[in-house]
Design a protein that fits this description.
This is Cysteine hydrolase. Keywords: Hydrolase. GO terms for molecular function: hydrolase activity. This protein has about 220 residues and is α/β, with parallel strands linked by helices. The chain contains ten helices and ten strands. Helix 7 packs parallel to helix 8. The model has no long low-confidence stretch (mean pLDDT about 95).
Length: about 220
């Protein structure tokens, strides 16, 4: 069965247990007022807009008992896993490890580092704590995917042009068939999101496919019918 997608239809695996939903960095510090994203002057309402659709897609996976992976961008409290090039980047008033409105920024276990309540992981759903932009760098993500026999990934979350795109490119290089769910990912900058969608599906799907959540769920229903 297929999902109606760009640049052409995306073929789902006959066994949907080989399809995983990857939800990237839907963290309070990025999506809620008073968090890190807000402190940097971004409109967090843009990111919040995808939550209902992403929750519907998540519930579809949960109802069928299919694999779900959540990622959280974070660092150890001593910042030993944060390279100086990342720590010092930006010249802003706040940087990684500083005390923000929801605790220390991008530090594991701090209130702002947690996933928003609407998408909070359930027992049995894998949470990948990642120190980089991509989900594969310095994590057990690849090992977890291989252990579950995953071959296809639906990539969602924030932000489109940074952690979502990086993860999709990493996955593409490792042989996974990836689809970015268009209305389940967002950026603080709408033009960046649009450019990313166009880049990943360019030249016959050089990185992968894109499609709206409704098309993805319709394709999944066709497999199980």
């Amino acid at each position: 069965m297929y999902v109606s997608a760009l640049p052409y239809d995306y073929e789902l695996p006959a066994d949907l247990n080989r399809l995983a939903l990857v939800i990237i960095d839907m963290q309070r510090d990025f999506l809620e007022p008073g968090g890190f994203g807000d402190a940097l002057g971004n409109d967090v309402k843009r990111l919040q807009a995808i939550v209902p659709t992403l929750k519907e897609l998540l519930e579809t996976f949960r109802a069928q008992g299919l694999p779900v992976f959540h990622t959280i961008e974070c660092h150890q409290p001593d910042l030993s896993d944060c390279p100086p090039s990342k720590l010092d980047r930006g010249k802003g008033s706040l940087k990684i490890g500083d005390l923000g409105g929801m605790g220390r920024i991008l530090v594991r276990g701090e209130p702002g580092n947690g996933i928003i309540a609407e998408l909070e992981p359930l027992p049995g759903e894998t949470v990948i704590h990642k120190p980089g932009k991509g989900a594969f760098y310095n994590t057990e993500f690849q090992t977890q995917l291989q252990a579950k026999g995953i071959t296809h990934l639906l990539v969602t979350g924030v932000t489109t042009e940074v952690c979502v795109q990086t993860t999709m490119r990493e996955a593409n290089d490792r042989g996974y068939e990836c689809l970015m769910v268009e209305d389940c990912t967002e950026s603080y900058f709408p033009e960046f999101k649009q450019s990313t969608l166009e880049m990943v599906r360019a030249q016959g799907g050089i990185v992968g496919w894109t499609a709206p959540a409704a098309a993805v769920m319709a394709g999944m229903r066709a497999v199980t019918a």
